[in-house]
Fold Ionic transporter y4hA.
Amino acid sequence: MNRWVKGLTSRWTTVMPVLAVVLLLFTWGRELPGAVVAVAVVVLAAAVLAAVHHAEVVAHRVGEPFGSLVLAVAVTIIEVALIVTLMIDGGPETASLARDTVFAAVMITCNGILGLSLLVGSLRHGTAVFNPEGAGAALATVATLAGLTLVLPTFTTSKPGPEFSAVQLTFAAVTSLILYGLFVATQTVRHRDYFLPVQKLGRQGMPVTKVEDEDEHADAPSNRTALISLGLLGLALVGVVGLAKGVSPAIESGVSAAGLPHAVVGVIIALLVLLPETIAAVRAAQRNRVQTSVNLALGSAMASIGLSIPAVAIASFWLSGPLVLGLGNTHMVLLALTVMVGALTVRPGRATPLQGGVHLVILAAYLELALNP
């Protein structure tokens, strides 16, 4: 029976990414009727679950923190492609799309994914334990990237409005890539131990890097299996983001019919795109691997800024119209609150349900203000 269930799981996780890409090819660039939109949403959800499965296979093969990095970078690269595509197709109305999508990703990852993981981990295991050195370094990098690319444009004077001049945009793009590259080198080479899962508290309540669970004792998948899963992960993510773009006109129509701000479209698409990372992070927290969840949450926020801004900067040279990056006052307050609360959360290296709840409340405030600015 177990073998049959395992075989069934293997088959559907192989079929769904391919089906998502096939459906994407048949629907790309076309106006979709309601029935096709419904089918696309179902296939999109199945592709999300398949992506999580294949990400976990790859992560088990390469180990932490490489597993979290693979999923975060893969999702972000395709998210960047989605942003640029929508900006090319959307005209002047998409001037603030990059800002809205990147900020939505930061709020969802730093408050939603992180808060939900801390809440699940602490409720299940008493205390959610992680490495403060790694989490603190990641949060500092996210805060710097967000400040340089999303806050400063509001206060610069070279161009009217919350925009960068060409020189300023180039500087922001280059520094974003440099910071992201430095962080990846720190995470994977020089201080990899700062980003490994921890499961117990040592002296004075500080976390100790030691993992002992079923994943550690299970045999790692072969290179062939990991490569197949990596390819299927890419297909699944292409399908997820592409189908999200396909259903976005229906989402836009629904948002307009409901009289909601256009920025809500970016929030909904960001929620769809980040579903694989959310599910993977929560499942890691359930297994008492909260550091993996933290790596996913903060790593995704960092990749979203560090890769999106350079890509948008390059695209802006042939796109007509302004590129609005600066946040408004309300969003700057939410970003500042996120950074301050995040610093207090990661500093001890352990969290209770309270910290998880606080981050989720900040996310709820962001979503409520997106609906009622």
Summary: The chain has a mean pLDDT of 81. The chain is about 75% helix and 0% strand. The beta strands are 128-129, 200-201, 207-208, 350-351.
